[in-house]
Specification:
By secondary structure, the protein is of the alpha/beta class. It contains 12 helices and 13 strands. The strands form 3 sheets. An 8-stranded parallel β-barrel has the order 1-3-5-6-9-10-11-13, surrounded by 7 helices. A two-stranded antiparallel ribbon has the order 2-4. A hairpin with a 4-residue loop joins β7 and β8. The termini are close together.
Length: 334
């Protein structure tokens, strides 16, 4: 199982954003030097009054520190973007990273983001599917023509092409229909950090069933996002992590995130211990090892994407979390 780190780019309104960027650079070097496999960045728009660093320029800067690690987007909100621009930008990113780019894409769920982009949220599935087809063709073909409902191209080519024959495109998905779409249109599925593990097992079976029905091989990468904190023991880990992970999810639920996770719209986010149960990995080293092995051996996760840094978390806790997971957990789960 490969292990990558999701680097948060969301910060409080009063936080020193230049200092935050310096912190992310420092974290990337630490992640590289302690033996992780990848770094990942997400995307949101209009997070005001909170600050959200945008994905493409930040990923390019961090790629300079990533060494041999993969770099990925988790997730780029492709329905809000022009696929020609994305194809050009991320072909360049693949060249910059020496062919180590993974492009994770998702639908997006915030109505205000679509409205500000002059887009109808109801068109997001069509724009995603057409956008992915355009990306694949522009990265691998010249003289591309395309006639869709949302996009039209007439004999266009991009240069440079990606260094890889084509970067993999992974879909983030939480609802069943989105998982079936990931099974048939994407190179891998990225599962949410919020879905309860029992429900996740059912969705993993659905994913493989959809691939089998489409005549696609079962052997495919499957990534799972996990909020993770390693403490001395379960009690102290919950106590130390709650002010940061708990606050993050209160913000996300206020944005409507829970409405997109099966069975989670009524989750009690005020009870942190209950919220983490069978969703997040928070505990002492032995607890964390056991939960990671559950992801690997029961859920079939091939790529664990762990969030180790959270808005407002002090630097010393972030670095300790990165180092403890690398030294006390990763050797037991690979």
């Amino acid at each position: 199982m490969d292990v990558g780190v999701f680097l948060g780019s969301q910060y409080a309104a009063n936080e020193d954003i230049a200092g935050a960027v310096a912190g992310l650079i420092e974290q990337t070097r630490l992640i590289r030097d302690t033996g992780y496999d990848a770094i990942w960045l997400g995307q949101h728009f209009l997070s005001h009054p909170e600050q959200y660093l945008q994905t493409t320029p930040l990923l390019a800067r961090l790629a300079a520190e990533a060494g041999e690690m993969n770099v990925g987007t988790n997730l780029l909100l492709l329905p809000m973007l022009n696929p020609v621009d994305v194809a050009e930008q991320y072909a360049t990113m693949d060249v910059i990273t020496g062919g180590r780019l993974i492009l994770g894409v998702g639908l997006g769920y915030r109505a205000e983001e679509f409205a500000a982009m002059q887009l109808d949220k109801k068109d997001r599935v069509g724009r995603l599917v057409e956008g992915v087809e355009i990306l694949k063709r522009l990265w691998t073909e010249d003289h591309v023509s395309f006639q869709g409902r949302h996009f039209t191209l007439d004999d266009v080519s991009i240069a440079p092409k990606p260094l890889q024959s084509r970067p993999q495109i992974w879909f983030g998905a939480t609802a069943d229909k989105a998982i079936e779409r990931a099974a048939t249109h994407a190179d891998a599925w990225i599962a949410t950090s919020m879905t309860e593990w029992g429900e996740m097992k059912r969705q993993v079976d659905l994913y493989h069933q959809a691939r089998a029905e489409a005549g696609l091989p079962r052997e495919v990468r499957f990534a799972k996002c996990v909020e993770l904190y390693v403490g001395d023991d379960k009690e102290s880990a919950l106590r130390e992590a709650e002010p940061f992970i708990g606050a993050k999810y209160k913000a996300y639920y206020s944005w409507g995130m829970g409405d997109n996770v099966p069975g989670e719209s009524g989750a009690n986010i005020s009870d942190f211990a209950e919220l983490t149960k069978n969703r997040f990995i928070v505990g002492g080293p032995e607890d964390v090892i056991a939960d990671c092995l559950h992801h690997r051996d029961v859920l079939g996760v091939t790529d664990l994407i762990v969030r180790l840094n959270f808005p407002g978390m002090p630097k010393e806790l972030v670095h300790r979390n990165i180092e403890r997971f690398a030294t006390e957990v990763i050797p037991h789960i690979r």
